[in-house]
């Protein structure tokens, strides 16, 4: 090779680098590195054979490069075509969305190719978009109930929720089967849950139990079935499942483009709404309240709307007396009401809305509202602060007694309620009990002004000091004969609640709450300082068995969530008491805050006083009193401070005698509630909803 040719080779080998797309190295560089590596290569020259080999290698590399370029060009063109089809589908969807928002999408057929005269020629000539009608424009309500509710609480851990497979079947097959067909095409379907934190996408086929007809839907992101909170919980049973009304997809390639059309679960949608306050105070105890705080909002007063209202508590009642003639009012359950008609007429009906809590109930409730206009839905909610009905008593505390029974797992099942109002007194509970007799081996009578006791001299006849219920009391029906008032020991008996209230009941367990309102707190004659009478020991729970009866009886009972280790037999403790301690097998509250005891009596009156001891943090600066609602005894550490009573056996007893309010008379009275043992509505246990206790309104 000449010196000139050698220089050309060197220049080509060292030429500037060009694009290396799809190549690991520059082709020309590979060739000339090969030439330089040949045996005998030098700047002095190269043979013809060597040059021919190099040319052949360069040709092969060039052909390969051209093929790669062609493949790349094909891929780019294909992507551009796909993108163009997708953009075309999205352009068509702009028309579909507009029709959907205006309620003009046809739902008379299941599936159709979308057409619109206003679309451009290129969109009309394209592959097109298929629209599938699922829920369509149908109302999500069947009367007042949701058509497609959850049949159980959504499973947050598994990311599933369940519903009735045939909840909405506008034609065969059902919506869920149609959804499965879409999923098989590669379409991800969007749903929503009422009260959920967001939309749920579903790409896994729906499973349907052929026996129960229950469908299980598995979401892609389990968090969407949560209601929020800390920790989050699954959306509860009964809430709406928002199935897509329509699904649209690219006719040629559904995987390329698809979308679900579904209204938001709780939107403040344009044109309609509910104006409801966040909180409202109402009177409880079954008293009717005019709930005129719900207001329907609509831009067009000629709109036909439906307002559905429902309370949280199943035993609450909603009514609309004397509704306007041009509205439709319906109730499927007492705690639901639905009103349909033009906006002005619905508003007029809402002015007469009445709310009543369950009988004898107070605490909290909620009023949920939904307003709908076709597929548009808006919602509102008011939290109800249900105040107690104290039957006109102005001093005292209202305490909700839940009566019911215990299941095999020990869980309490509520059957009914009563609102019990504390007995307000200015004596210590031992004095109020009215006991006179044996206590701790001594004969005593609790007759001191501060509640202390006086011993009866040894050898003295107890009948000289104490009335004998068996021998000295006579009856006129269920009322003690007034002639008994002349007996010398009667003052100590009449301090008992049955006499003080002028009424008594045999064969019952009398139970009531005592609250101390002492003006001054003296030092007891027993030497016990009673400064805690109106503070930590302000409240006592008093039980009396078979009051002033001449028959015998027995009861085995269990009290939970009371102060641990308190000795009820200590007569020097003015806040506890056991009548005839020898009749009680156990008198000290256990370490777990549980009293399990058997009481028996030959003659009445027997009973027990259990203190509901408060903590130092129970003081309420707003009332200036230690309040029962701040009770926090939980020795067993289960997070429940509600004292409960469970009877395991009894003899000579037929029911409870509870001091409670009467709805009809608007007064506090003694109510007799039969045990109804053995049936599903048995009332052999009591749970005191102590955290909900409220002071009676002045």
C-alpha Rg (nearest Å): 41 Å
The total count of helices amounts to 10
Helix content: 10-25%
Quaternary structure: single chain
Question: How does this model look, in words?
Answer:
The chain is 17% helix and 32% strand. With 698 residues, it is α+β, with helices and mostly antiparallel strands. It has three domains: 113-261, no CATH class; 272-387, Immunoglobulins (Immunoglobulin-like, Sandwich), CATH 2.60.40; 397-693, no CATH class. The strands form twelve sheets. Strands 26, 32, 33, 35, 37, 41 and 42 form a seven-stranded mixed sheet that branches. A six-stranded mixed sheet has the order 14-23-22-17-20-19, with helices on one face. A hairpin with a 4-residue loop joins strand 41 and strand 42 (667-674). Helix 2 (27-37) runs antiparallel to helix 3 (48-101). The radius of gyration is 41 Å and the shape is elongated. The N and C termini lie far apart (120 Å). Mean pLDDT is 78; it is low at 1-28, 34-43, 76-81, 265-270 and 467-473.
Detail the topology: elements first, then pairings:
Layout: H1 3-13, H2 27-37, H3 48-101, E1 111-113, H4 121-125, E2 129-133, E3 141-142, E4 145-146, E5 160-164, H5 175-184, E6 189-193, E7 199-202, E8 207-208, E9 214-218, E10 241-242, E11 246-250, E12 258-261, E13 272-275, E14 279-283, E15 288-290, E16 295-298, E17 304-311, E18 317-319, E19 328-330, E20 336-342, H6 343-350, E21 354-356, E22 363-373, E23 376-387, E24 397-406, E25 412-421, E26 423-425, H7 429-433, E27 436-439, E28 442-445, E29 454-455, H8 469-472, E30 475-476, E31 479-480, H9 490-493, H10 497-500, E32 508-516, E33 539-545, E34 553-560, E35 577-578, E36 595-601, E37 606-611, E38 619-620, E39 625-626, E40 644-651, E41 655-662, E42 667-674, E43 685-695
Parallel strand pairs: 14-23, 26-32, 32-41
Antiparallel strand pairs: 1-2, 2-11, 3-4, 5-9, 6-7, 6-10, 8-9, 11-12, 13-16, 15-21, 17-20, 17-22, 18-21, 19-20, 22-23, 24-25, 24-43, 27-28, 28-29, 30-31, 32-33, 33-37, 34-36, 34-40, 35-37, 38-39, 40-43, 41-42
């Amino acid at each position: 090779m000449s010196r000139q040719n050698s220089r050309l080779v060197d220049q080509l080998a060292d030429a500037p680098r060009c694009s290396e797309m799809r190549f690991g190295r520059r082709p020309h560089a590979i060739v000339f590195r090969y030439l330089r590596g040949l045996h005998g290569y030098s700047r002095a020259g190269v043979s013809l054979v060597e040059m021919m080999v190099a040319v052949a290698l360069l040709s092969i590399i060039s052909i390969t490069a051209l093929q790669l370029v062609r493949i790349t060009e094909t891929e780019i063109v294909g992507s551009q075509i796909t993108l163009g089809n997708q953009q075309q589908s999205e352009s068509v969807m702009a028309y579909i969305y507009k029709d959907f928002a205006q309620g003009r999408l046809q739902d008379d057929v299941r599936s159709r190719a979308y057409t619109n005269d206003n679309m451009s020629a290129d969109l009309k000539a394209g592959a097109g978009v298929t629209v599938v009608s699922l829920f369509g424009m149908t109302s999500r309500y069947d009367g007042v109930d949701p058509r497609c509710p959850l049949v159980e609480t959504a499973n947050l851990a598994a990311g599933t929720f369940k519903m009735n497979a045939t909840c909405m079947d506008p034609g065969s097959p059902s919506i869920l089967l149609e959804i499965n067909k879409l999923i098989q095409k590669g379409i991800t379907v969007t749903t929503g849950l009422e009260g959920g934190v967001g939309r749920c996408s579903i790409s896994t086929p729906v499973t349907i139990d052929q026996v129960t007809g229950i469908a299980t839907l598995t979401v892609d992101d389990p968090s969407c079935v949560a209601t929020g909170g800390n920790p989050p919980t699954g959306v509860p049973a009964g809430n709406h499942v928002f199935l897509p009304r329509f699904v649209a997809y690219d006719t040629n390639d559904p995987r390329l483009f698809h979308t679900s059309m579904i209204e938001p679960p709780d939107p403040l949608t344009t044109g309609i709404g509910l104006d409801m306050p966040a909180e409202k105070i109402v009177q409880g105890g079954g008293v009717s309240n005019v709930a005129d705080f719900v207001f329907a909002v609509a831009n067009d007063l000629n709109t036909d709307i439906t307002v559905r209202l429902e309370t949280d508590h199943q035993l609450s009642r909603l009514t609309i007396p004397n509704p306007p003639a041009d509205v439709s009012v319906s109730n499927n359950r007492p705690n639901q009401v639905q009103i349909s008609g033009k906006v002005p007429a619905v508003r007029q009906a809402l002015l007469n809305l009445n709310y009543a809590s369950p009988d004898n109930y107070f605490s909290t409730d909620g009023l949920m509202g939904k307003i709908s206009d076709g597929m548009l839905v808006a919602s509102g909610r008011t939290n109800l602060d249900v105040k107690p009905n104290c039957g006109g008593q102005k001093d005292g505390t209202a305490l909700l007694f839940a009566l019911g029974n215990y299941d095999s797992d020990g869980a309490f099942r509520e059957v009914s309620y009563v609102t019990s109002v504390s007995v307000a007194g200015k004596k210590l509970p031992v004095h109020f009990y009215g006991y006179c007799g044996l206590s701790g081996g001594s004969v005593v009578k609790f007759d001191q002004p501060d509640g202390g006791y006086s011993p009866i001299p040894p050898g003295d006849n107890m009948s000289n000091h104490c009335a004998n219920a068996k021998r000295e009391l006579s009856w006129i029906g269920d009322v003690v004969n007034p002639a008994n008032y002349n007996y010398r020991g009667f003052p100590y008996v009449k301090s008992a609640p049955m006499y003080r209230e002028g009424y008594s009941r045999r064969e019952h367990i009398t139970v009531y709450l005592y609250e101390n309102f002492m003006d001054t707190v003296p030092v007891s004659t027993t030497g016990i300082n009673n400064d805690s009478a109106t503070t930590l020991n302000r409240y006592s729970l008093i039980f009396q068995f078979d009051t002033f009866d001449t028959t015998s009886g027995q009861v085995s009972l269990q009290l939970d969530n009371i102060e641990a280790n308190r000795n009820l037999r200590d007569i020097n403790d003015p806040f506890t008491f056991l009548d005839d301690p020898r009749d009680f097998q156990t008198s000290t509250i256990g370490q777990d805050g549980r009293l399990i005891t058997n009481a028996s009596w030959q003659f009445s009156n027997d009973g027990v006083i259990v203190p509901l001891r408060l903590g130092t943090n129970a003081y309420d600066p707003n009332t200036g009193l230690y309040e029962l609602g701040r009770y926090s005894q939980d020795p067993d550490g289960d997070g429940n401070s509600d004292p409960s009573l469970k009877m395991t056996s009894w003899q000579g007893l037929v029911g409870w005698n509870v001091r409670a309010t009467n709805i009809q008379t608007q007064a506090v009275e003694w109510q007799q509630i039969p045990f109804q043992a053995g049936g599903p509505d048995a009332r052999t246990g009591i749970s005191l909803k102590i955290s909900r206790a409220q002071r009676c309104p002045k």
